[in-house]
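During the reporting period the student researcher (J.K.) took over the structure-prediction task from the postdoctoral fellow and processed the backlog of single-chain submissions. One of the processed entries is reproduced below for the supervisory committee.
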Amino acid sequence: MITEIDICGYDVYSSISESNKIDPYRNSSFKAIKDLSSKKKGAIFEKIFEEYMIGNGHTVLKPKSTEHDRIIKLNGSDEEIKIEIKGSFLWGTGTHFRYQQIRTHQDYDYIVFLAVYPENIKLYVASKEVAKNALEVQDENGKWIHNQHGGKDVNSGTFFIDCIPSEIDWIEDLEW
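J.K. obtained the following structure tokens:
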């Protein structure tokens, strides 16, 4: 048996304690969300986006399929826009965000990126076509640089991007 007192003497516990000391979210209200599982975080990001949009006078509808997260009607419009929602906290010591599981073949019109900083959440957007053109790219050696699964030799259809969204020319501030 390993007791609570014993674990405090383990090197592995020490490394966790040290990383918590440099965690930029350690005193943030967003830490409770950051500490959730990936699946729960994804659901929370969807609800945050939904509440934000409703709060700004837009209509938010449930998805018609599993290929997008929400449908929105911008204030005063009947047009239905299919939205895929991706969220991220700062990675490591706060150098970038990582947006994952971006599937460019799915049925959506726009990707909304939530960048969760310790003090606020910034929302960004890119059309599916713009994102697809930016992510489905190969380097000079034919490697898929944003490929998430199966190595870099084959296009898996699932992509990731490490970035600060405001520094990426194809990602725009969400102004809806």
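The committee noted the following: The first strand starts at residue 59 and ends at 61.
J.K. will present the remaining backlog at the next meeting.
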